[in-house]
Amino acid sequence: METEDELKLGKVGTFRFTVSTFRELLAKQDGRCYVTGRKITGINADAELIKPIPKNGELKKENVCLIIDSVRDLKRYHTMKEIYEIALDIVKVYEEKAKNQKQPSKNT
């Protein structure tokens, strides 16, 4: 019989994240964040699923990556393709705002 939590979350596995898991992932990722490529430190490190549970991901060692904590929520709910698309949108908005700031106002 499934527990209420299993019914809510689905069966996600019984993987346990340990210090050795952290070290293995850190070596595998060359000490870099899976999403940004920025350096992972003991202060900014976090772990998330490569394929998030809402996207039918499973809680398995092969599906875990290290990230910097500032992108935790983004990685928690989105695939890398979705994050890439979001990043493109951010760049477009940033460039448009920068372009508008460089143009002289019509009142001068």
Describe the structure.
With 108 residues, the chain is mainly alpha-helical. It has a domain at 4-78: DNA Binding (I), subunit A, CATH 1.10.30. The protein is 42% helix and 9% strand. It contains 4 helices and 2 strands. A two-stranded antiparallel sheet has the order 1-2. The relative contact order is 0.13.
Jot down its keywords:
108 residues, mainly alpha, DNA Binding (I), subunit A, two-stranded antiparallel sheet, elongated, disordered N terminus
Describe the protein's topology:
Blueprint: H1 4-9, H2 19-28, E1 45-49, E2 64-68, H3 72-77, H4 80-102
Antiparallel strand pairs: 1-2
Can you summarize this structure?
Helices cover 42% and strands 9% of the residues. The protein is mostly helical. The protein is elongated and about 65 Å long.
